[in-house]
């Protein structure tokens, strides 16, 4: 079985995002970028499935600027077999991403597509579900456990009430949650090997997808600073303070 894993280049999770001076967006110049953490979990899960013998090939795909090659090389160093970069400098929205991934999947014919449940830059949590709808495939979202057996995949999902287990017939789509696994670090030999692994470059037009944004960002602003807390002597003082603030205890 072939596995397809989309990955996204985002601001590193250790970096505090800064808003541009003109309020037009988030500052990306000279900012450390890395693979979206949820996508890193998806890559790790795909590699583990291959190591167990449940899959034969892991293909990673990214949609973004030329520098997204670095993200793909990271996935190749982790253990993926080959990569595809759909190169565009546009800010591609989830629906366009889903349409491109659908076209890529139709060419690659993977038995399972594993995505991160969301990207930490926009937190949309839409691409996996949209892709499943466009392709008419079964989906298991927020996966904390994935098991492949023949032409079926069992997914343990994290839901509000606890855990839910669903059985899907492949080809299927799975989105990963944080507790699915802990991604490995790429070793130096694997980083060197990744430089020679195949990386194909395409354009959205090759798949007949228009990436023109449907949404317009009017302004971006930092959230207001949180005010310092205040200690009170006892419950009566607390109730009085709440009443003064107009809060009904």
How would you briefly describe this protein structure?
With about 250 residues, this protein is an alpha/beta fold. It is about 25% helix and about 25% strand. It is built from 6 helices and 11 strands.
Please give a handful of descriptors for the protein shown.
249 residues, alpha/beta, Rossmann fold, nine-stranded mixed beta sheet, two-stranded antiparallel sheet, 6 helices, transport
By CATH's scheme, which homologous superfamily applies?
HUPs
Task: Give the amount of beta strand, in percent.
Answer: 25-35%
Unreliable parts:
none
Question: Which strand order does the major sheet show?
Answer: 9-8-7-10-6-1-4-5-11
Query: CATH topology, anyone?
Result: Rossmann fold
The count of domains is 1
The shape, in one word, is globular
CATH level 1 name: Alpha Beta
For the largest beta-sheet, the strand count, sense and barrel status come to:
9 strands, mixed
Distance between the termini: 59 Å
What's the β-strand tally? 11
Query: Radius of gyration over alpha carbons?
Result: 21 Å
Q: Given the structure, what is the number of helices?
A: 6
Determine the fraction of residues in helical runs and give it as a percent range. Answer: 25-40%
Topology pattern, helix = H, strand = E: EEEHEHEHEHEEEEHEH
Task: Explain what the structure shows.
- By secondary structure, the protein is of the alpha/beta class.
- The protein has a single domain, classed as HUPs (Rossmann fold, 3-Layer(aba) Sandwich).
- It has six helices and eleven strands.
- The strands form two sheets. A nine-stranded mixed sheet has the order 9-8-7-10-6-1-4-5-11, sandwiched between helices.
- It starts with a strand and ends in a 5-residue tail after the last helix.
- This is Electron transfer flavoprotein subunit beta.
- It comes from Sphingomonas quercus.
